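Run log, item B.
One chain of 128 residues. Sequence copied directly from the ordering sheet:
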Amino acid sequence: MWMWTWRGPPVAGSAGRSRDVSVYGPGPASAPRRRRPENGGDTGLMKLSRPVSWFLLAFGVWSWFIWITFVKNLWKDGSGLAFDDAGDPTTYFWVHLLLAVTSFLLGTAVGVIGLRGVRALRRERSRG
């Protein structure tokens, strides 16, 4: 087990002592960071811009439309790729159904993030 450390800045109220700071490696697990947004910490709330929020929301809507349409077309496939001669689903069908469902779920998650961003911007604007 190895860990690369460097001597960090002095610890407040420690009379000039430094603390070891882990940079990389499978060292011992560290405790979760405390929330300190007043000190410029990186665990504060994130704010999406208006264009990004609308883009994410549009992507989510597009994902619903595209992937539901894709699954409908896959289900009606008459070319023999999705279903064999006996009418049983093929590997092609299962792989593409899995891809469609995964993409649908990811698109939904992205759309929800966009919707939350748009709603937060509207609340902020109404507060003035």
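Observations after the first pass:
- Confidence is low (pLDDT under 50) at residues 1-6.
- The chain is about 50% helix and 10% strand.
Flagged for discussion on Thursday.
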